[in-house]
Amino acid sequence: MKAAKQSKADIEPVVAELLALKAKYESTVGIPFGGAPVINKESNKVREVENPNEKKSDSISKKKRSETEAKSNDAAVDNLITPRAVDYSAWYNDVISVSDMVDQSPVRGCMVIKPWGMGVWDLLRAELDERIRESGTQNAYFPLFIPKSFLSKEAEHVDGFAKECAVVTHHRLCKSPDGKELIADPDAKLEEPLIVRPTSETVIWNMFGKWISSYRDLPLKINQWANVVRWELRTRPFLRTTEFLWQEGHTAHASAEDAIATAKESLDMYASVCEDMLAIPTVKGEKSPSERFAGAANTYTIEALMQNGWALQSGTSHFLGQNFARAFDVFFQTETGERELVWATSWGVSTRLIGAMIMTHSDDKGLVLPPAVAPLQVVIVPITKGTGPEHDELMRSVNEIVKSFKSQKIRVKVDDRQNTRPGAKYFEWERKGVPIRLEIGPRDLKANSVTMVTRPTGEKKSISIDNLVNDIKSSLSEIHSHLLQQAQDRLTKKTFRVESYQEMKGMMMNEDDDESKEQDQQLQRSTIGFYLVPWKCDAKNEEAIKQDCKATIRCYPLELNQVPPAAGVKCFYSGEQATHMAIFA
């Protein structure tokens, strides 16, 4: 293939297949492919067998070929995807890499979101923004920098974020005395340090104090699309990074009831967007007091379940009570002329939702995208030699198909690269997660049909060109329904009702048992998930469980906590009367 000067995209799938066969050979036979190595008994190192009849020039040429092949193999290995069953975390990172969603940043803990990843976020953001504005919320923008004194005004809030804050202390650089490097200019120290925005409650409530004076100013609903910085020690693309993108809604109200209703409406919106856009079912719930947002009177959450049983907090909405209004002296005059503190909410989702989507739907072949957030919903691969009347006729038909798709707002691309074989194109778009691939050649055109392949199932079938637009729209809808149902079935299957702590702990398994580690891992995959338990709210017991088996309360499901557990229902841990039904994970 190299001799024929075929492209890297053509070669990579073949190399990947050969490397997989090579690895299988070596694991079966027990020796490296190409023969047994020679062991130097003194150094116990593998060395190559030298051929005494080989000329020096041939030896040098062989060495260069080996180095080139090694580099090629390394590149191919970099493009392989670790199977989920082998290492779920590595699989996640590999899928993000091969689908070209992000790249490494020169700044530790940050990521560069590439066009394909940003395309997903843009579509999700557009839908969210429309729904937020429909709720009567207006967009605004607030400073990236927050005076340190602002965070100090709300004690719980500052305690919650103090360890994650990035702090600006100087406003200028200068050369060091020896002229070899740049340093913070000692004469440019700020009078008050500035915090790089970890969240915006404090700066927004400072402004609310200027904007609110009467009940006529309420409710006040503001949303901000922004980046925030939280200095994380252990990061993972989309799921937890030092800098990330999000929206944060902030509202002020005349009554607690109105504020709580808004917080719950925001949570409903998030759950709906997850289902409608990302095909992710979630559990809506209330956080335990220990897990609430810093400074909140109550925190509501949507919790999602990943393929391997991991729980992922996917969005939160907070009833802030009057804490921030009190900290920033935000009062309003009531209709009766009295002066009262306003009631508040805040709510937000971030690029973490993209990570949730990847871990919910993708497979060992690469990314799987729900159609609603796919930058391209359909890719068309013409099967043509690239020249002549037959090619021209085919491309005219392809262009007509594209035109009909775009008229129906179907996001489509024609992959007509002449230097890439069809198989390599299939491989690339499959890894990028495009929901539908259409293949069309001269024979298809004569039969007035195209071949359609759907990404999630790999189903391949021939469909008529005459009704192509309607068939594609139906197929996109079916793909979404399939992904959502698959995730819902997983959520149902992996939500376990348990009555005792020992039962839950046993299901979570002991990862340190090396004797049956492989068996444990197999069992773990089938018994790790959500554990629904009767629970008496107790912070000390909650912490004890966390220390003992690392399980935490994800939420008190709203649906199951409309009334307290019946008399006689005992807490699965303490044996006392239960106050809630709780989900641990």
Largest sheet: 11 strands, mixed
**Helical percentage:** 25-40%
Unreliable stretches (pLDDT < 50, length at least 5) are: 25-32, 35-57, 68-76, 511-520
Instruction: Measure the end-to-end span.
Output: 50 Å
Strands ordered across the widest β-sheet: 5-11-12-18-15-14-13-26-27-25-24
Q: What structural category characterises the helix and strand content?
A: alpha+beta
Please report the total strand number as a whole number: 27
Put simply, the count of helices is 17
Which whole number gives the mean pLDDT? 89
Sheet-strand content, in percent, reads 15-25%
> Could you tell me the radius of gyration in angstroms?
29 Å
Principal-axes geometry comes out as globular
Key words describing this protein structure:
585 residues, alpha+beta, eleven-stranded mixed sheet, five-stranded mixed sheet, globular
Your description of this structure?
- The protein is α+β, with helices and mostly antiparallel strands and 585 residues long.
- It is built from 17 helices and 27 strands.
- An eleven-stranded mixed β-sheet has the order 5-11-12-18-15-14-13-26-27-25-24, sandwiched between helices. A five-stranded mixed β-sheet has the order 20-19-21-22-23, sandwiched between helices. Strands 6-10-7 form a three-stranded antiparallel β-sheet.
- Helix 11 (389-407) links the parallel strand 19 and strand 20.
- Helix 1 (8-29) crosses helix 12 (422-432) and helix 4 (115-134) packs antiparallel against helix 8.
- The longest helix has 26 residues, at 468-493.
- The chain is globular and about 80 Å long.
- It starts with 7 loop residues before the first helix and ends with a strand.
- Residues 25-32, 35-57, 68-76 and 511-520 have low confidence and may be disordered.
